[in-house]
Amino acid sequence: MRKSHFIPAALLVMLTACNSGADNKTAGDSTATDTSMKMSDSSMHHMDSSSAVAPVPAIPAGAKVFFKNLKDGQSVTSPVKVEFGVDGIKLDSAGKLKDGSGHHHLLIDAGDSLALGTVVPKDSTHLHFGNAQTQTEVKLAPGKHKLTLQYADGIHRSYGGQLAKSITVDVKK
């Protein structure tokens, strides 16, 4: 009789223990899924909490980002091809902090820039290009859209308005 009560109790304890981490796993899984869509660097946004975070690297004099193929106010059709340009600072993959380098992020209808040091969110309006990509295609609904090219360091911290460029495009049907 004792044995028959022990097995269900043990199963209940094991299920409870497994479920206590389910929410964390789900959150991690969605990040891993999103990350694999644009980047293979699984260390994105993950840092060892025991290590001190270095300051955002200095921006080299004269560094700038720009849209290579789009002009402010341009009429386009969807999907929109967007080519990213950068001068005066090295384009590099995400994952490690390296002085004088960074990678692109595309903000869609999400403002002019992110404050210096702010980690760029990862969602449908903040696209990451941590494999040092220099172009993409985005599907946009008809109408006016603000596109902002935001440069960030190796751990996705914004270089602020100094390395951002915004334009508006008019997507025609």
Automatic annotation (TrEMBL):
Enumerate composition-biased segments (Low complexity): 29-42
Tell me which UniProt keywords the record has, alphabetically: Signal
Source domain of life: Bacteria
All residue ranges annotated as the DUF4399 domain in the record: 82-172
Instruction: Give me the ranges of the annotated region Disordered.
Output: 23-48
According to the UniProt entry, where is the signal peptide? 1-22
- Annotated protein name in UniProt: DUF4399 domain-containing protein
